[in-house]
Specification:
The protein is an alpha+beta fold. A hairpin with a 2-residue loop joins strand 10 and strand 11. Helix 16 runs antiparallel to helix 17. The chain is globular.
């Protein structure tokens, strides 16, 4: 099945006679993504942009555009009052926040509605509850959602916290309640470093989020990071749109995502989906949201957090379900009921996404800046590129280093992987170091091919020298080196190494 044959569900609810113009409070590829769906729906769009983004494609694509300040986010994309003023000035009836910036800011959501505008997202109440990791855990626990053992309140007494840590058992994880992206997060291996790591985590959390509340969880050493996409409307209807596998990460931030996961059974998938809906019900959620879980080696899953917005990786869910999540967001914000029910949904095919970031994998994935001297994205069946830059443009230092998202879709996981390799070979970027070659290496490794990997994938298998290759044979050797490490891990876990050797032999045969 080609990706043009993905089943599409009709929008059964006629649009209400309002929301004829929306403002997108974001930039780059997500701004373009939202605008394209809005155009298909006959809705006019307003872009807001910083001085650094004046020549960006999303500014030209919008029907109207308003400059809201200098390059720094704090003086532009994070200025709620300027964004709301721009909406009123242009006659926009609603604001779509995208992801990042103010998308999970409860105060912004409230300010938008207080101004008489529609926030295309959940209520401020839902954002506030789920924005606190502790608050989210407390809300979800009432609905019987499985939790990682840990504290239910912010740590206020070091001695009491130490007793709890010893009861849980080391290693433990200290996490910032208001945090994300790995900030304010520390692994504590033993009691002797407990106090120092608590203080470090609190200091980092205060600096990053203006809130030094931290809590303790049992550290799950080699989990998979699996998230459930859900949608809810303002009439109490909920659906889950299956899962995404997001375990390949650096600095607790995702690089490769896929849907569906290679490890879940239908029963576990159903249980996780129902738990995700329970989390949404716990805060009267509506709109698009994602509930994240840790899954251990026994496929036991634990609630991690809820993201009260559209996810970067929403594309792979769209590919396997045929649902335009942005369209559903807009219709839910209009007050419409969901256009489909749970029984209407099924998984069709497999999708993989690589975040094409201006980062140097040879130097610990540090961000890059500079000019896209040549920029030629791939094309062809089953290839989708969501990007926000064009050839000749500069990658600024002020924002997230993601250049684009490369998504491939096919009828099977193996075909989606092969299509990803082909698309990466056709993707030509010159002038900026990027994650394309890392992505090709990653999806060719035996751990990825066989679906036996976790969030320590990069730490366990990747070395920068694996990317310093001159031909395909050398790339295969690098992948096989990672496979030998994988085999050792499997043997150490009392799994049969013969199975791994068999997998490698089959993989090599398929590569010829």
């Amino acid at each position: 099945m080609s990706f043009n044959q993905i089943p599409k569900f009709p929008i059964s609810n006629l649009p209400l006679p309002f929301m004829q113009k929306i403002l997108i409070a974001n930039r780059g590829e997500i701004a373009m993504r939202v605008m394209r769906t809005a155009k298909e729906m006959g809705i006019k769009t307003v872009a807001v942009f910083s001085e650094a983004d004046r020549k960006m494609p999303f500014v030209r694509y919008a029907d109207e555009a308003v400059c809201i300040g200098p390059a720094l986010s704090a003086q532009s994309y994070l200025r709620a009052e300027k964004i709301i003023e721009a909406a009123k000035k242009t006659g926009a009836e609603a604001i779509h926040p995208g992801y990042g910036f103010l998308s999970e800011n409860a105060s912004f959501s409230k300010a938008v509605t207080d101004a008489g505008l529609i926030f295309i997202g959940p209520s401020a109440h839902s954002i506030e509850i789920m924005g606190s990791k502790i608050g989210a855990k407390q809300a979800a626990k009432k609905f019987g959602v499985p939790m990682v053992p840990g504290t239910e309140e912010p740590i206020s007494d070091l001695n009491e916290a130490r007793l709890i840590a010893n009861k849980i058992g080391y290693p433990i994880l200290i996490k910032a309640s208001a945090g994300g992206g790995g900030k304010g997060m520390r692994i504590v291996e033993h009691d002797g470093e407990f106090e120092e790591q608590i203080r470090t985590a609190k200091s980092e959390a205060l600096s990053a989020f203006g809130n030094d509340d931290v809590f303790i969880e049992k550290y799950v050493g080699a989990p998979r990071h699996i998230e459930i996409q859900l949608m809810g409307d303002q009439h109490g209807n909920y659906v889950y749109l299956f899962e995404r596998e997001c375990s390949i990460q650096r600095r607790h931030q995702k690089l490769v995502e896929e849907a569906p996961s290679s490890c879940l059974t239908p029963e576990i998938r159903k249980n996780m989906g129902e738990c995700a809906i329970a989390v949404a019900r716990s805060c009267n959620y509506y709109g698009a949201g994602t509930v994240e879980f840790l899954v251990d080696e026994h496929l036991d899953f634990y609630f991690l957090e809820m993201n009260t917005r559209l996810q970067v990786e929403h594309c792979v869910t769209e590919m396997i379900t045929g649902i335009d999540l942005v369209r559903e967001q807009i219709n839910v914000a209009r007050g419409n009921k969901l256009s489909f029910k749970q029984e209407d949904l099924k998984i069709t095919g497999h999708a993989i996404e690589l975040r094409v970031c201006a980062e140097d994998p040879l130097n610990n994935f540090l961000p890059e800046t500079g000019k896209l001297e040549i920029y030629q994205p791939p094309k062809g069946p089953g290839v989708r590129v969501d990007d926000g830059y064009e050839e000749g443009m500069d990658i600024p230092i002020y924002y997230d280093p993601m250049i684009a998202k490369l998504i491939t879709y096919a009828s099977t996981r193996d075909e989606a992987i092969d299509r990803m390799c082909r698309a990466i070979d056709e993707y030509y970027i010159k002038g900026i170091k990027n994650t394309l070659e890392f992505g090709k290496w990653a999806v060719q490794t035996i751990p990825f091919r066989t679906g036996n990997f976790d969030t320590r994938f990069i730490d366990k298998y990747f070395k920068p020298e694996y990317l310093v290759t001159e031909d395909n044979e050398a790339t295969e050797v690098a992948a096989l080196l990672a496979a030998s490490i994988w085999m050792k891990d499997k043997k150490d876990n009392n799994n049969s190494p013969a199975n791994a050797v068999s997998s490698i032999s089959k993989w090599k045969m398929n590569r010829k």
